[in-house]
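Worked example (supplementary).
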Amino acid sequence: MKKRLVVIGNGMAGVACVEQILKHTQNFDITIFGDETHVNYNRIMLSSVLAGEKEFDDIVLNGIDWYRQNDITPRLGLRIESIDSVAKTVTDVDGGVTPYDKLIFATGSSAFIPPMEGVKKSGVFVFRTYDDTRQLLELSGPGIKAVVIGGGLLGLEAARGLQVQGCDVTVVHLGDTLMDRQLDPAGGGYLRAKMEAMGMQVLCGRSTEALLGGSHVEGIRFKDGEVIEANLVVIAAGIKPNSALAKTAGVSVNRGIIVNDLMETSDPDIYAVGECTEHNGQLFGLVAPLWEQGKVLAAAITGVGGLSFNGSSPAAKLKIMGVEVFSAGNFDCSRPGVEAVKYEDSSLGIYKKLVLKDGHLEGVILVGDASDDHRYMDWLRTNKDLTSQRRHLLTPPPAEDAGGDVAAIPESETICGCMGVTKGDIIHAIHTHGVCNIAQLKDKTRASTGCGSCTNMCKSLLRAVAPEFEEDKVKVLCDCVPFPQDKIREMIQSQRLKSVQEVLDIYGNGRGCEVCKPAISYLVDVVWCGDHEEDRSARFINDRVHANIQKDGTFSVVPRMRGGVTTPAELRKIADVADKYNVPLVKVTGSQRIDLLGVKKEDLPKMWEDLGMPSGQAYAKGLRMVKTCVGDEYCRFGTQSALSTGIELERRLENLYTPHKTKLAVVGCPRNCAEATVKDIGLIGQEGSWQVVVGGAAGKGVRKADLLITVETTELALEAAEVFFQYYRENGHYLERSYDFVERIGIEKIRRETVYSTDDVRAGLLDRLRKSKDRSSDAWLERNNPRATQFVQIEPMQMQYQGEELAAK
Amino acid sequence: MNTLTEQWIQITPTSEVPLREGREVKLGSINIALFNLGDRWMALENRCPHGHGPLADGIVGGYGTATTVTCPMHSRRICLDSGAVVKPLGQGGPCVRTFPVKVEDGIVMLDIQDSKAREVAA
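After joint prediction of all chains, the assembly is encoded as:
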């Protein structure tokens, strides 16, 4: 007969412990009570849900199938009211009585509400559960003044999430330093600067006295009498263990449920795990030690034994994209014999501090760059003697040593604290499943699918153990903003960044360079369909003066001639302008346009005015032109109207930026006179249909374009071209030509996600294209309203004397 | 500072040079690139030592600890403080002349005498 095991609590600690028990034995009949109605999910990722980076499904740890497969009875949305430890039963709120042989408390913790008036008002929340998160998501939005009380890990993550949702956010913190449990004042200062750079207000050293307003909160008052407006308040001022229920069972409770090294309570059949526990006077609020506890408990309750819990050194990592903060161990330097090793770069906002005692690491603080966190965690975990490494504590080990530190870790050591994956599990997966990259490792072991802070560690292990380890092919945009372009695009979107400078301030070094600034300019433009804050200082000179700079500092002027079609009147104007401004060279281009070369910068606006033609964008990373053949209007062999189709296509796409220059062609028959098969997008007319081809090249390399689709009507052909054009705009990397893009993504996938995708997806692409198009305009119209001194030399206000003499010197 | 070598010349109201951009100023036959960095203003000769590109048309940024402008011709990065070519190192040619700049009552002022004096001293 199986023993009945009742677990009170369906959170991370309780279920993780059950997972461990199942590894040892199937000999329990398990019932899990959870007062939330949801299946077991990753609570620490709720901040990512609030920030719009993840959905609930993404953070589910064990779906309902897992309960079924393991014969576990989930009783969700059912709170336990009392326990009779003599009769060995638990009673739920509905009056149901469930007997147990063994009982585990995994009741977690709840938000600590500091004493203040008005906490019962509507609009006042805590941030502990998925339901809290959902309510916050519902109420937050532009125009909402949100105040987060508590500048700890959870408070800051909540604040960032609310801000991403559009709220105007103020963080109020009792202490003088943000995250003061994890950071020293200097580290907290850097963190504060980062948060403020994101546009958040931070008020430290403020004690909240009352929440003001009628039934709904309208403001908060501090002890010093200051009042600030608030229509949404989140209290994240700490947690307290949920231990009241345990008192009804008669087990010893102090602040938390008191457990020994085997996670046993004072009742031999009752155990406790997680944030509800108190061990040697220590409480727990971070995920890592909970896993350790679960393993110990599982070993004890199943009789396997051999493990004991010896407390833990706390480690915390802030999960705000672009704000790296890591802290572990004890960083108090006032203790005797303790010394600090520091690194600080105030303009990059990087601060690292190691706290050492007798050559061993005791604590670590990393702000602005937490990439080496695993190394310091290892040193803490293994209590490594660092005497011989003293000169290299803050620099990474030489490449050949990579993996050296992981070799020293025992196989039983947990690598992924969220998912409870040990080094042994990972090595087993590598050997038995041939795992050789992070994606496969996640799939097979679930390591690094939680908070992600062990990813570097997992990589070191893979590098050291897997014979065919594949490094992730992640290419960052630039050292100034060290993220891959796809990530930056995501961050611009989710963090609602509208300008290049915001991206640089929050995710980069604040300064940027000629490599990243034009790229970010492109990304903010395309993400917001032109509704961004244009910053010309981040654009290359060509995009500031709408002309192509030449080797002698002059510029070239190419007016738009859609489809390569012009008129005698236009040609006369061009000739007159060339004469009037002494244009040294007039040239017909390979793109069926006329190029006026050798133009002085100050002449540009006047020439545009005189021409009265739109910009041909011949300088832009954008749509350049649509080249055409004469098609069936004149050609004896023509089967489709290449001219009118080409002109229409150019009209629909002109003035838009693309990742790199984009050249199109439309031909009226397969003889291909305008070379559509080597263009970024080509339309090839044939009897009764059009072929739309993409990714052709006739530059350094020659590549025949791939067939995207064959369609019957001209309108469908135009639409297919538009859909691809926008898809390339949204997914191409800056400076990636369409032919590289098509090779990278693969034409099959492109077809699936463009012309063969659902109506919704195609309509979405077209809709965003139209939005961008509506906000675009002919760049040469800026002649009517030029930016300050854009085209002229500045004339000194004061005539300088001795100027000529100086220059002659 | 020796007053004899100071020759501050009023150039332009600060509003004439947009934030993080450069503009060309002609003083006699010297072309100067004037940069507005928000918290400070910088000036150097508007001529890249490599291909003589117009530095005033470059993108302002950072490289290591240096604040730089990148020449639009061949992407040489010039340190705005020292005028030295910081990227690529070792093939940029001589330093670009730099000039002291100050802002008084919203007017940007250049001192080209001082630069000359420094040159003579060097």
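Two points are worth noting when inspecting this output. Chain A has six domains: 3-111+241-301, 124-237, 324-396, 409-473, 476-539, 621-777. The CA atoms of residues 112 and 710 of chain A lie 64 Å apart.
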